[in-house]
């Protein structure tokens, strides 16, 4: 069964809008876990625009489901992750000016630097995932530098859900398995587009945040998670085909 990681970044966005403590992203994570989230994802950005250091520390100590710590591949973040020791780290590209993560990590272009960081995280007992575009060179480099997992960036497909973008994801999924990498996917997924992505061959986990937190305003987080899990389960029944 495909696991659902719930990303709680944007609970913190709402909290930070007023500078207080409500709504608490850790409370949202605990609620999500009680209502079917198989894991929790949180992205500690360099500019701390939503999740903050103390949120990560509390998540690490209060959660009973796996924590996926999303982070830029910086010295500061690697050191923090090695001391916190979450279940997993997902290394993502980060630009301060961006509204959200715009593309995948250039693993092929930064292989020498990333290899050492991946090794340090793995030595701390952390499962290492790389957030990449479904590009053959990035998949090959991810395996070569020792990552155990890749998360395919689904943002391009989410914004332009046509055959060309889906074919890229499909070919990326096949290549991930050929390289012995565990396959995750995420970014920009909704009830409307998750089904086809859930049919990707070899998919183990989806990470979904912004849409789920938005839907929770209308239906509540438990109902939003339940509906997303249904969409994933029905999508996974149909093996993806590409034309
Ligand atoms: C890496 C990724 O695609 C996202 O989960 C990421 O966390 C997005 O960043 P924001 O949550 O800041 O939009
Ligand atoms: N890695 C993707 C993620 O955690 C959630 O992305 P989004 O659903 O907030 O776009």
TrEMBL record:
Compartment list: Cytoplasm
Main location: cytoplasm
Site (Transition state stabilizer): 151
Recorded metabolic or biological pathway in which this protein acts: Cofactor biosynthesis; pyridoxine 5'-phosphate biosynthesis; pyridoxine 5'-phosphate from D-erythrose 4-phosphate: step 5/5
Superkingdom of the organism of origin: Bacteria
Catalysed transformations (reactions): 3-amino-2-oxopropyl phosphate + 1-deoxy-D-xylulose 5-phosphate = pyridoxine 5'-phosphate + phosphate + 2 H2O + H(+)
InterPro entries: Aldolase_TIM, PyrdxlP_synth_PdxJ, Pyridoxine-5'_phos_synth
List of residues binding 1-deoxy-D-xylulose 5-phosphate: 9-10, 45, 50, 100
Chain positions recorded as 3-amino-2-oxopropyl phosphate binding sites: 7, 18, 188, 209-210
EC number, as in UniProt: 2.6.99.2
Alphabetized UniProt keyword annotations: Cytoplasm, Pyridoxine biosynthesis, Transferase
Active site: residue positions: 43, 70, 187
NCBIfam families (alphabetical): pdxJ, PRK05265.1-2, PRK05265.1-3, PRK05265.1-5
Stated family: Belongs to the PNP synthase family.
Record's subunit section: Homooctamer; tetramer of dimers.
Protein task: Catalyzes the complicated ring closure reaction between the two acyclic compounds 1-deoxy-D-xylulose-5-phosphate (DXP) and 3-amino-2-oxopropyl phosphate (1-amino-acetone-3-phosphate or AAP) to form pyridoxine 5'-phosphate (PNP) and inorganic phosphate.
The protein's name: Pyridoxine 5'-phosphate synthase
